[in-house]
Amino acid sequence: MIAGNRARLRFPSLFRHRMSIPIHDQLLPYVTQLPERPAEAVTLVVIHCTELPDLATAREYGEKVLYDSGAGNSGHYYIDRDGATYRYVPGTRIAHHVRGRNAESIGIELVNSGRYPNWFDSRQQIMREPYTDAQITALRELLTMLRETFPNLRHIAGHEDLDTAMVPASDDASRQVSRKLDPGIRFPWNEVLEGSRLERLTRR
Ligand SMILES: [Zn+2]
User: Fold this and answer.
1) Which PANTHER family does its entry note (predicted)?
2) Measured between alpha carbons, how far is 86 from 78 in angstroms, rounded to an integer?
3) 18: CA distance to ligand 1 center in Å?
4) What mean pLDDT comes out for the span 151-155?
5) From the CA of 50, how far away is ligand 1's center (Å)?
6) Would the pTM count as exceeding 0.85?
7) CATH of the domain at 195
């Protein structure tokens, strides 16, 4: 007991996260192609959902090379339905996850089927799947950890509020649907914001 307390005083950083969820590091193959940034550059967390059936499919999408740099689109963190949390990109690198706000943000993806597989079908623009309690608990713990790691982090936003572009519907090109709807109406904003000390940015 005494030895433990002494160690805690000498090495506080070792104990700070002892109650936190384990985060499984599964860095993407192209992670070193993503630009680096100092921790101080991060001011915003963007909440996404994968709009895909499962984590394995989300990983496939994340690994796809889409840019000349050798990189693709992905969030930094992924939270599966059982609350298991994975890091695909360190927060000190800029990932492609939201138009226009990548440089200052960390993207967190929750596994959720969303509109899959008819994302742009005008007759299926409802996000049906609820988020699990385990996902929301893990997200809250992850946000606490990120606030401790990134000193200027103070804002949080849904992807749908930052990217409001419309696209022609896949079933009827004369109709328009939202390019992004995540995390959607089933995301429990009040529960996530409570005690987070983060301010939500909404569409203007
Ligand atoms: Zn998104």
Assistant:
1) N-ACETYLMURAMOYL-L-ALANINE AMIDASE AMID (PTHR30417:SF1)
2) 5
3) 30
4) 98
5) 7
6) yes
7) 3.40.80.10
